[in-house]
Amino acid sequence: MKIPELTDGGWLGPKYEMDSASHRFGKCSECNDIICVEKVVTDTRNTQPATNEMLYKVFRTHVKLKHAEDASPAAARIVREATENK
Ligand SMILES: [Zn+2]
């Protein structure tokens, strides 16, 4: 079992026009879901690090919700054993 990764990242919309709404996206390597966040508004013109951080935060939530078993096989095993020993 492998841990899902965020792949095929890119930008949607105008990358350099700071006033325009662009989106940062990536794809889940496990289920091919597209994870997408709006560009973060910051005080500086360099919004990319903050936007990346946001994207990864959303992706980690996706992994937790959708691939919890893959992300933590130990926890899944405990649940399985608990339900089997009835
Ligand atoms: Zn996924």
Overview of the structural elements:
- The chain is an alpha+beta fold.
- It has one domain (6-84).
- 41% of the residues lie in helices and 21% in strands.
- The chain contains 3 helices and 3 strands.
- A 3-stranded antiparallel beta sheet has the order 1-2-3, covered by helices on one side.
- The longest helix is centred in the middle third of the chain and has 19 residues, at 48-66.
- Zinc ion binds at residues 4, 28, 30-31, 33, 62, 66-67.
Compose a concise summary of this entry.
With 86 residues, the protein is α+β, with helices and mostly antiparallel strands. The protein has helices at 48-66, 68-71, 73-84; strands at 6-12, 23-28, 34-38. A hairpin with a 5-residue loop joins β2 and β3 (34-38).
Neighbour order of strands in the largest sheet:
1-2-3
The string of secondary-structure elements, in order, is: EEEHHH
Euclidean distance between termini CA atoms: 27 Å
The total beta strand count reads 3
Heterogens: zinc ion
Mean pLDDT: 81
Q: What is the count of structural domains?
A: 1
Q: What is the helix content? A: 40-55%
**Low confidence ranges:** none
The gross shape turns out to be elongated
Q: What percentage of amino acids are in beta strands?
A: 15-25%
- Class per helix and strand makeup: alpha+beta
Give the secondary structure arrangement, pairings included.
Elements: E1 6-12, E2 23-28, E3 34-38, H1 48-66, H2 68-71, H3 73-84
Antiparallel strand pairs: 1-2, 2-3
Bound molecules: zinc ion.
Zinc ion binds at residues 4, 28, 30-31, 33, 62, 66-67.
